[in-house]
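Aim 2 progress update. The chain analyzed this quarter is reproduced below.
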Amino acid sequence: MRISPTVVLVLFTALSIPAFAASDDKIPDEQMINVLEQRAATAPTKDQCFLYAVLVHDMVEVSARQYAAGDVDKANNLLKRAQALTRKLHAVLAVNDKKLKDAQILLRHAAFRLNELLHSSDFDDRQLMQQTLADVNQAQVDTMMQVFKK
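Predicted structure tokens:
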């Protein structure tokens, strides 16, 4: 059986795209989150919405890894910090932001991730996750509405 060069090229391309895309993602850690939180606090108001969305997204990702590792206290503390950041995000949402759509996409992904966590978590942790998910969903909807106002 002979395989055509086109088939080989298509297979190689299809198999290499996920590996390339995965290598682009940075895995956030607590130190990166702290640095970004300081940067967001001192950033101009027009940039804060996007930076807070990045922070919430990264906090949810790190929290998911901490839950998986069994470090529930750290994960819960991170979710509480994410809730506080969604409130800050609401405060700066009305300001003209150049990356508002990107912020909305990050918040949507964070909400999706929280929903996954909620379904796989213990009963004791669900209340905090549900509250955080509600806050992130509301921030995502408000951000989307702000995008449509433009």
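The two ends are 58 Å apart (CA to CA). Residues 28 and 58 are 6 Å apart (CA to CA). These observations will guide the mutagenesis experiments scheduled for the next reporting period.
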